[in-house]
Design goal:
It is built from no helices and ten strands. The protein is an all-beta fold. The protein folds into two domains: 83 residues, SH3 type barrels (Roll), CATH 2.30.30.30; 35 residues, no CATH class. The relative contact order is 0.19. InterPro entries: Rib_uL2_dom2, Ribosomal_uL24, Ribosomal_uL24_C, Ribosomal_uL24_KOW, Translation_prot_SH3-like_sf.
């Protein structure tokens, strides 16, 4: 199984699919809402929106709910790229190991960084 280089809260760009001219979401950016590591799928805010028809029923407060709801659907992680915080363009993600001193102790920490600019994520 491949490593998950995208985490919750990251800004990502959709790199595949239909172009915006044809009603698609390609090259749009959004914030990651949730990540499912088992299926390697990600929910991104504002991308891959689908209409869902829900049956009208009564909620616990007594209000009637139902109709057509628009919500985000999951996207496979291979169709997304992280957005570089400095250049605002899609970039690959790298990891490096750094030694950090805290309270007189040295620890090794893995740090994610954008390969385009070298900035930490």
């Amino acid at each position: 199984m491949a490593k998950m280089r995208i985490k919750k809260g990251d800004t990502v760009q959709l790199i595949t699919g239909r172009s915006q001219k044809n009603g698609g979401d390609r090259n749009k950016t959004g914030k990651v809402i949730s990540v499912n590591t088992e299926t390697q799928r990600v929910l991104v805010e504002g991308l891959n929106r689908v209409k869902r028809h829900t049956k009208e029923g009564q909620s616990s407060r007594g209000s009637q709910t139902g109709g057509i709801i628009t919500q985000e659907a999951a996207i496979h992680i291979s169709n997304l790229m992280l957005v570089d915080p400095e250049t605002k363009k899609a970039t690959r993600v790298g990891t490096r190991v750094e030694t950090v001193e805290r309270d007189g102790k040295t620890k090794t920490v893995r740090v994610r960084y954008a390969k385009r600019s070298g900035k930490d994520l």
